[in-house]
């Protein structure tokens, strides 16, 4: 079977596209009916190594497949849009297939209002939290432990063309904790904005951890643009629960500076700090008694200037130090981590467009 024939057969087996339409616009649905806007597979592979106190960690060495994702976005009808991302490298039993689904939701928009429901990203502020994991290398202890994909619903309103408020109710990320009930919920209010050189992702969150016990987040994500080639992200998150001093005892800080000296090269320096001196066991993301620092550097080369996401070659290194009282934590004292690899995207939608336009001629 020819490659072109196989490719079209594969797409029509998973998408209800009218492949016999007379024009490309009809096929892709650029009207008030069904429309496909994104369809791609992302993957990332790397060699990685790790040393603790100067000694190699054998089971953390070697070449690894890190991410393999399917992303699909589109429109069902005018005003009704959907988004879907599946973690293809994450094992999921039939009974828990959605565990490997990052998100799958339907959103309805009308003028300034929007409503969405399905499996969503818990509405927690911060740019480290917001970025796609495949585009990150070394992250905070909080980021590594928060189960951010949950079933829920959101309602939002665009206050201006640059500001939006979103209210969300979803399953609590802490339902798997001992003593937490299956119907535990979380409540979030998020403000997102874009004002020239400044952007924000701020939220207040209330998540149930045990029956009638909650942990509170204040998450402040701030992004500053210093011209077209320099960007600074500064995130601060405070966590607190009952009988816990509210500010600065249990918090995380992330500073991330990205510089693009030329179009095809991106350099990033990052610092993360996680601390919990609350004296309580309320926070199971960053354990009481923890005080951790990590600095990391990475370089990314994107040789396809027109499509930088299609091919990315990277190298990254991180150094962590401090105390982590979580026996299953991800950052350790005197921890050196290195990796180098390749990220690439197979843009099925772009390929489909090209073939349809050739066929329509």
What is this entry, summarized?
The chain is mainly β. The protein has 5 helices and 17 strands.
Secondary-structure blueprint of this entry?
Blueprint: H1 3-14, H2 24-28, E1 35-52, E2 55-56, E3 62-77, E4 80-87, E5 101-110, E6 113-121, H3 127-130, H4 141-145, E7 149-160, E8 163-171, E9 185-195, E10 198-210, E11 213-225, E12 230-241, E13 250-262, E14 265-276, E15 290-301, E16 311-323, E17 335-347, H5 348-360
Antiparallel strand pairs: 1-2, 1-3, 1-17, 3-4, 4-5, 5-6, 6-7, 7-8, 8-9, 9-10, 10-11, 11-12, 12-13, 13-14, 14-15, 15-16, 16-17
Task: Give your account of this protein's structure.
- The chain is mainly β and 361 residues long.
- It has a single domain, classed as Porin (Beta Barrel).
- Helix content is 11%, strand content 54%.
- A hairpin with a 2-residue loop joins β13 and β14.
- The radius of gyration is 22 Å and the shape is globular.
CATH domain topology: Porin
Determine the number of helices (DSSP H or I, runs of at least 4 residues): 5
Which band does the percent of strand residues land in? Answer: over 45%
Low-confidence spans: 1-30
Order of helices and strands: HHEEEEEEHHEEEEEEEEEEEH
Report, as a whole number of angstroms, the end-to-end distance: 23 Å
CATH architecture: Beta Barrel
**Average pLDDT reading:** 88
Shape descriptor reads globular
Supply the number of structural domains.
1
CATH superfamily: Porin
Helix content: 10-25%
Side by side, the strands of the main sheet go 1-3-4-5-6-7-8-9-10-11-12-13-14-15-16-17
Number of strands: 17
CA radius of gyration: 22 Å
Sheet having the most strands:
16 strands, antiparallel, barrel
State the name of the first-level CATH class: Mainly Beta
């Amino acid at each position: 079977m020819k490659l072109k024939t196989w490719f079209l057969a594969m797409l029509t087996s998973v998408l209800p596209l009218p492949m016999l339409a007379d024009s490309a616009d009809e096929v892709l649905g650029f009207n008030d009916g069904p429309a496909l806007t994104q369809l791609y597979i992302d993957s990332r592979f790397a060699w990685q190594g790790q040393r603790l106190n100067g000694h190699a960690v054998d089971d953390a060495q070697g070449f690894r497949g890190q991410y393999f994702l399917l992303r699909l976005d589109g429109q069902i009808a005018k005003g009704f849009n959907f988004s879907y991302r599946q973690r293809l490298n994450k094992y999921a039993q039939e009974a828990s297939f959605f565990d490997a689904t990052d998100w799958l939701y339907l959103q309805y928009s009308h003028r300034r209002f929007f409503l969405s429901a399905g499996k969503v990203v818990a509405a927690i502020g911060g740019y480290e939290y917001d970025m796609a994991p495949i585009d990150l290398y070394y992250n905070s202890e909080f980021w590594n432990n928060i189960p951010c994909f949950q079933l829920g619903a959101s309602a939002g309103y665009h206050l201006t063309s640059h500001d939006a408020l979103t209210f969300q109710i979803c399953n609590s990320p802490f339902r798997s904790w001992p003593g937490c009930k299956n119907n535990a919920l979380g409540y979030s209010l998020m403000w997102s904005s874009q004002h020239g050189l400044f952007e924000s992702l701020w939220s207040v969150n209330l998540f149930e951890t045990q029956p009638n016990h909650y942990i509170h987040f204040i998450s402040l994500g701030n992004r500053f643009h210093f011209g077209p080639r320099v960007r600074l992200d500064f995130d601060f998150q405070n966590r607190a629960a009952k009988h816990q001093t509210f500010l600065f005892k249990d918090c995380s800080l992330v500073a991330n500076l990205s510089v693009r000296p030329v179009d095809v090269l991106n350099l990033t320096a990052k610092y993360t700090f996680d601390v919990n001196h609350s004296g309580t066991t309320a926070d199971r993301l960053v354990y009481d008694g923890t005080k951790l620092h990590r600095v990391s550097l990475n370089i990314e080369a994107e040789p396809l200037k027109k499509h930088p996401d299609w091919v990315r070659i990277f190298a990254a290194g991180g150094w962590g130090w401090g105390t982590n009282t979580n026996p299953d934590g991800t950052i350790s004292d005197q921890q050196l981590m290195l990796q180098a690899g390749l990220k690439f995207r197979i843009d099925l939608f772009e390929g489909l467009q090209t073939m349809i336009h050739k066929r329509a001629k």
